[in-house]
Amino acid sequence: MELLEAIKSRRSIRKFKSEPIPESYIDKLIEAGRIAPSGSNLQPTRYVVIKSEEARAKLKECSPLPFVAQAPAVIAVCVDNGVVATAEVRTRELREANAFVDTPLNNSNAADSEAYNNRKKAMDEGALKAYLSLNAAIAIDHITLRAVDLGLGSCWVMMFDKSKVKELINLDERYDVVALLPVGYPDQAPAQRPRLSIDEVLLKEI
Questions:
Q1: Which helix (H) or strand (E) holds 177?
Q2: Looking at residue 121, what is its pLDDT?
Q3: How many CA atoms are closer than 13 Å to the CA of 161, on its beta-carbon side?
Q4: 61 Cβ neighbours under 8 A, 6+ residues apart
Q5: In a 3-state reduction of DSSP, which class is residue 53?
Q6: How many CA atoms lie within 13 A of 169 on its CB side?
Q7: What is the set of domains in the chain, with CATH numbers?
Q8: Is there a contact between 64 and 161 (Cβ–Cβ < 8 Å)?
Q9: 75 contact partners, CB below 8 Å, separation of at least 6
Q10: What does pTM read for this prediction?
Q11: Those residues with Cβ within 8 angstroms of residue 43's Cβ, 6 or more apart along the chain or in another chain
């Protein structure tokens, strides 16, 4: 599917067919998220795929939205709060891959690199969580568009009890659940939602 067509076709799907998703499609969705860009290539996004009837039944206790548990698969999109400790390694990998060519970062010395990475490590907890969640959002967008390309529907859900979901999928404190992404074959064809005009969203050109 052409990219713009996928972007225009994407809808939040809240009614799914019971037909299971091929395992290869799940792999393709996770791959779309895996290759998404992230700040300083920290790659903080992690995934738990919830498919069993037992686990999806327990999801009913985690969200007031019934369609979440009714989807044949739900991707719990998480972030690894520990990735900040890898900032120095990720920066070195980027430099070795010539990602910083023609930028000041390419010529940074060891002291500059250390200062650059220490800025991330010095973030307070709120700023760090916001930063990592923003990176996860990029991955989620890649997944939702790939889902359209595969003939699937999805819905970005944040209305859930995070502590209950963490308990359900057995995650330790290192991880936070950012969103639930129910995925399946759509059993509805919603019309395009109202959108503001370009004149309303483009503030200015300077």
A1: strand 175-184
A2: 63
A3: 11
A4: 164
A5: helix
A6: 25
A7: 3-201 (3.40.109.10)
A8: no
A9: 29, 30, 47, 48, 49, 50, 143, 180, 181, 183
A10: 0.91
A11: 34, 83, 90, 135
